[in-house]
Amino acid sequence: MSYQAKFRVWRGDDGDGELVDYTVEVNEGEVVLDIIHRLQATQAPDLAVRWNCKAGKCGSCSAEINGMPRLMCMTRMSTFTEDETITVTPVRTFPVIRDLVTDVSFNYEKARQIPSFDPGDTKPGEFRMMQQDVQRSQEFRKCIECFLCNNVCHVIRDHEENKPQFAGPRFLMRIAELEMHPADESDRRQIAQDDHGLGFCNITKCCTEVCPEHIKITDNALIPMKERVAGKRYDPLVWLGSKLGIV
Ligand code: SF4
Ligand code: F3S
Ligand code: FES
């Protein structure tokens, strides 16, 4: 069954823009990205939208749909009523290039700042990992880099001035993955706390709520990382060891 849906889409660039109303055909089984594509094909050929896989795997089609950060290709039209107006806006935390396309280079800059895996003198094949360590990494590596978690986190969503000091949940999770890797020899606690702003996170869990891969970012990465940082700072043995230069 087809019907005509009311869409309100943000059109504009970094300097200026507005929400524009459209009425677009919807067919059974379609997702929001299908409707945006139909809009491009029939009424707004210059509408800018970033997408690639249409399967929830490339992380390109992030947007805000009725104010919720979501992947457009994974948001079924059947989640809305037929008379509802569906508002699609670009993710808010990153600067708009045009229409629904934002400049997410903040994230790539943060990624580059994280020191890579450091196995020390250990050669490949020289260490064994426990299954639970493997599973932890596997969970974090489900990340498709849609940056919806970084987009929703209030630390940078509402505070542009925090961006230099805060890497966001996606990259704090990456630091946690390396810190908890049994073969990584770098101490990542100071990097997380001092260089990438772990202390800004007050565990609101909004990042976990929007993650399309259902990664438990807060419970499995951020909180354990905070515990490790606290252990380093407040454990008297760790403190003594650091004073003696052996921890
Ligand atoms: Fe997206 Fe989840 Fe990865 Fe964040 S952790 S970038 S929400 S897939
Ligand atoms: Fe932000 Fe997630 Fe912490 S939304 S405040 S990084 S729990
Ligand atoms: Fe690839 Fe949506 S188009 S995640």
From TrEMBL:
One of its GO terms (cellular component) is plasma membrane. SUPFAM superfamilies: 2Fe-2S ferredoxin-like, alpha-helical ferredoxin. Keywords: 2Fe-2S, 4Fe-4S, Iron, Iron-sulfur, Metal-binding, Oxidoreductase. Signal peptide: none annotated. The keyword Metal-binding applies. GO terms for molecular function: 2 iron, 2 sulfur cluster binding; 4 iron, 4 sulfur cluster binding; electron transfer activity; metal ion binding; oxidoreductase activity. Residues 5-92 form the 2Fe-2S ferredoxin-type domain. Its cofactor is [4Fe-4S] cluster; [2Fe-2S] cluster; [3Fe-4S] cluster. GO terms for biological process: respiratory electron transport chain; tricarboxylic acid cycle. Pathway: Carbohydrate metabolism; tricarboxylic acid cycle. It holds the Pfam family Fer2_3. The keyword Iron applies. Belongs to the succinate dehydrogenase/fumarate reductase iron-sulfur protein family. This is Succinate dehydrogenase subunit B. The lineage of its organism: Bacteria, Bacillati, Actinomycetota, Actinomycetes, Streptosporangiales.
